[in-house]
Amino acid sequence: MTRDRAIHERVRQIFDGPFGAIYAYYMGHEALSRVIGRVIWGADLRPFYESLRRIADVPSGGLIVDAPCGAGVAFRALSPEHRARYVALDLSEGMLARARATRARRGLTQIELILGDATAIPVGTGSADLFLSHFGLHCFPDPEAAIREVARCLRPGGRLEGSMIVRGPHRRQRLLVQPGRGGFGPGGTVADLRRWLNEANLEADRVEESGCFAYFSATPSA
């Protein structure tokens, strides 16, 4: 088994199992997730939930890509009447099953759920108005390749909104962020994240740290 495949399988098993159910539950309850984010990760989760407001800015007929989509926490920002195309992708069958339940509960028939790899998104080059990449890069075998795929998908004037758990010098980061173990791939630092964006020709208008988390937004360079 190749290194990348081994990481995929390890991460998939974690999110298909009990942890995935727990994670889906607290991320779906903002007040609870903010407490967990602060107590465990030393981080503020408000920027994540606030970034979901960008979904409403995508016009009818536009394209939103959400990878990894998890259990569909971002679906809360989409209404049944919003006729944008919404492509939601995840590696975990368990998380996709939860996302299907979220989609059905909210009556969101415009959402396409896909089992797949975030480095191979099945949409056209230069077609996405908005790309959501929340809390996935630290899980991927090749986060830099995932950022390149974001850049391929985005149209000129499109927007990336994302977040990840980052390696760093602080004690909490050294304790909690264990590259190559549990749900972590090789991961990266904030400096790595800036470099990935730059080398993919994505211009960052925000890269900020909060505890173990980094929040970022970017647009394709002119």
- CATH class call: Alpha Beta
Q: What is the assembly state of the chains in this entry?
A: single chain
Number of domains: 1
First-residue to last-residue Cα separation:
41 Å
Structural class: alpha/beta
The fold-level CATH name is Rossmann fold
Enumerate how many helices there are, as a single number.
Answer: 8
The CATH architecture: 3-Layer(aba) Sandwich
- Give a quick account of the main beta sheet: strands, pairing sense, barrel closure: 7 strands, mixed
- In N-to-C order, the SSE pattern is HHHHEEHEEHEHHEE
CATH superfamily: Vaccinia Virus protein VP39
The coarse silhouette is: globular
The helicity comes to: 25-40%
* pLDDT < 50 stretches: none
Fold and architecture overview:
This protein is α/β, with parallel strands linked by helices. The chain has a single domain (3-220), classed as Vaccinia Virus protein VP39 (Rossmann fold, 3-Layer(aba) Sandwich). The protein contains eight helices and seven strands, in the order H-H-H-H-E-E-H-E-E-H-E-H-H-E-E. The protein has a seven-stranded mixed sheet with strand order 3-2-1-4-5-7-6, with helices on both faces. A hairpin with a 2-residue loop joins strand 6 and strand 7. The longest helix has 14 residues, at 3-16. The relative contact order is 0.15. The mean pLDDT is 96.
